[in-house]
Amino acid sequence: MKYSFCKNLSFSLLSMSLLLPYSALAINTSLIVNLPAEKLNWKVTPEGAAFAALEGDRFKGPYMAMVKLPAGITSPMHVKSANMYGMVISGTFSHIAKDAKLSSEIQLPAGSYYMIPANLPHISKCISKVECVSFLYQDGKFDFITELKQ
C-alpha cells in the first residue's frame, strides 16, 4: 500500500510538473502585445517630430514610444528632466553634449543605442537623407526645455 501511494504521488507530481509550463504558457500568451508598424498611431508635433505611444503617457510619467524626426533636422540646445534611452531603427542620428567638441560627434545608424542623461544640455540631429526613426524609453515624463540656465 505504501508503494502504491508513493507511486501515485510521484506520477501526480510528474504530471503536474510537465503540465505547469504549458498552462503558464497558455496564460501568458494572452499578455503578448503585437503592434504592426502600419498600426502605429503617429502624432506630429508643430516642430515636425512624430511620436507613436507604445506604453505609458509621455506627458505624465515614464513611457515607451517610437519617434520620427524629419531628414536633416537639428534640434535647438535643450535638456530633458528624465533619462532617455534609445535604439535607432532607421536613418542616422547624432546627439552631442553642449560643451563637446564637434569632432566627437558620433553617427548612430540603424541598430545603434544611445542614452542621454537627465539635465544634460545637448543637440539631437537626424543627419541622414531619410527620416530617422527610434525606439525611446524615458524614465520620467517628457519635456523639452530650451531656456537653459547659464
TrEMBL record:
KW Thylakoid (keyword) present: no
InterPro entries per record: DUF4437, RmlC-like_jellyroll, RmlC_Cupin_sf
Keyword Signal part of the UniProt annotation: yes
Record SUPFAM superfamilies: RmlC-like cupins (SSF51182)
Signal sequence bounds: 1-26
Keywords, in A-Z order: Signal
Name used for this protein in its record: Cupin
Organism: endosymbiont of Galathealinum brachiosum
